[in-house]
Design goal:
Blueprint: H1 2-28, H2 30-41, H3 45-50, H4 60-63, H5 92-103, E1 107-108, H6 109-112, H7 118-123, E2 134-136, E3 140-141, E4 151-152, H8 163-174, E5 178-183, H9 194-207, E6 212-216, H10 225-231, E7 237-239, H11 249-252
Parallel strand pairs: 2-5, 3-4, 5-6, 6-7
Antiparallel strand pairs: 1-2
Helix pairs in contact: 8-9, 9-10
């Protein structure tokens, strides 16, 4: 009896492992093969014990010989170190994604928050898979958080009624497996934009039920009806950033918003 249970458990474990490897292999392709080769050809435990391993090159921050700080009285502008420089965005994936966003009048937090990694994400990086985080409810926020570069206004334009359909269409064309939706804060709307977010998620699921959706929402000024509306819209992950600790909230958010 125990032998049969053990045999079934081993078989089940083997099937799950094989399914997982097949899924990961399909998703990451040559990157996974390259990782396996590097791991198999890398040093073993015995090499570390004996000390017979090649020395790793120094990280850029330690090998850099340029000045990182101006001395007192100096006003000369220092050059940025190499680890703070990024390539000018461009390439086939980048241009395709940007064209698609403009045609459908969609906004991304990548652009509005001036993310320095936009070229790598939109361009696909080493994997060749372009990604972007869609920002819903327009490109103008009713908050004025000091750490954010998104435009602000007390009375931003009304949300685009076609945004849910256009967002779903774009994601279907991109062929993603997982998408992150984020949003500006819309304190000018009675529900904070919750119904608009829910409609977008439902439209996405209607076009592609297998697409995993994460929604990074605002705080809805503490109104729990907002999270409740979004949570039952069909998404897989509900997320919210507190952004700062309570002690520093008045410096980051201003005195009108709190924990």
């Amino acid at each position: 009896m125990l032998n049969r249970i053990s045999s079934r458990g081993t078989l089940c474990h083997r099937n799950v492992t094989q399914s997982f490897e097949a899924c990961v292999g399909k998703r990451f392709g040559s990157a996974l093969v390259d990782l396996k080769e590097r791991m198999s050809n890398g040093p073993r435990l015995g090499d570390f014990i004996s000390g017979d391993i090649p020395s790793a090159p120094l990280p850029a921050s330690l090998s850099y010989t340029g000045k990182l700080k101006r001395e007192e009285g100096e006003d000369e502008r220092l050059r940025l170190p190499p680890w703070l420089k990024t390539k000018i965005p461009g390439g086939k994936n980048y241009n395709k994604l940007k064209t698609s966003l403009r045609e459908l009048k969609l906004n991304t937090v990548c652009e509005e928050a001036r993310c320095p990694n936009i070229g790598e994400c939109w361009g696909g990086g080493e994997s060749g898979t372009a990604t972007a985080t869609i920002m819903l409810l327009g490109d103008t926020c009713t908050r004025g958080c000091k750490f954010c570069s998104v435009k602000t206004s007390r009375n931003p334009p009304p949300p685009d009624p076609n945004e849910p359909i256009n967002t779903a269409k774009a994601l279907a064309d991109w062929g993603l497996d997982y998408v992150v939706l984020t949003t500006v804060d819309r304190d000018d709307l009675p529900d904070g934009g919750a119904a608009h977010l829910a409609a977008t998620i439902m439209e996405i699921k209607k076009r592609n039920p297998s697409l995993l959706v994460e929604c990074l929402t605002g705080d809805f000024r503490g109104d729990l009806n907002g999270p409740a509306t979004v949570a039952v819209s069909g998404l897989e992950v509900y997320a919210h950033n507190i952004e700062t600790v309570e002690r520093l909230q008045k410096y980051c958010w201003g005195r009108f918003y709190n924990f």
